[in-house]
């Protein structure tokens, strides 16, 4: 494989990672907004404990998973960018 072909392949990989990163960010931001709404809507019962809503917990778990995926993609993107820079020099 020539350097030009490898550079093109890596550039396409970077583009895909960037698109996925933005998609995850949008999804996470949407979920964060929903979690915020649920937090504001939750009321404390008379005994003083915080109300636990299964949907709220699921949203928080999903949001945490998306954050991990986003961090993983960011790390992979950094690795691909390093490879691109090494090919260019």
Please tell me about this protein's structure:
The chain is mainly alpha-helical. Helices cover 83% and strands 0% of the residues. It has 2 helices and no strands.
Q: What tags apply to this protein structure?
A:
89 residues, 2 helices, 0% strand, rod-shaped, single chain, mainly alpha
The gist of it:
The protein is mainly alpha-helical and 89 residues long. Helices cover 83% and strands 0% of the residues.
Annotate the secondary structure layout.
Elements: H1 3-41, H2 54-88
Helicity level, as a percent range?
over 70%
Mean pLDDT: 80
Query: End-to-end distance, in Å?
Result: 17 Å
Stretches where pLDDT falls below 50 for ≥5 residues?
Answer: none
> Number of DSSP helices?
2
Number of strands: 0
Cα gyration radius (Å): 20 Å
Question: How would the global form be characterised?
Answer: rod-shaped
* Helix and strand composition category: mainly alpha
Order of helices and strands: HH
Major beta sheet summary = none
